[in-house]
Sequence to fold (116 residues):
Amino acid sequence: MDVAEILQTQLKDPRLPLVTCTRVAVTNDLKSAKLYVSVLGDEAQKKSAMKVLEGATGYVRRLLAQRLGLRSAPEVRFVFDPSIEYGIRLEELLQSEKERSPAPEDDEAERGPETE
Fold:
């Protein structure tokens, strides 16, 4: 939650579109952390956002150390995570397939009215 909050509220750069922290991987010795982020936008926006994030690693590291009460914060590295894009694309494919496929007929319509 701390990383997501920092990305949403503390980084105020107009070149930074909507960025979401999807997960964090920290080594056992707490010396290194990979922050996986998803960026919504076109390729140019993604590249620009990753450059902004790389430039902000020291600032993010300092904020994390303060919030977590650590004497020394882990080295921070931002890693692009395409999983949200994959999910969006999968949803689009499922939706287009649903629209292309004929709707299954209702069982009652196939059988006709029941007689007693």
Residues 83-100 form the longest helix (18 residues). The chain has a mean pLDDT of 84.
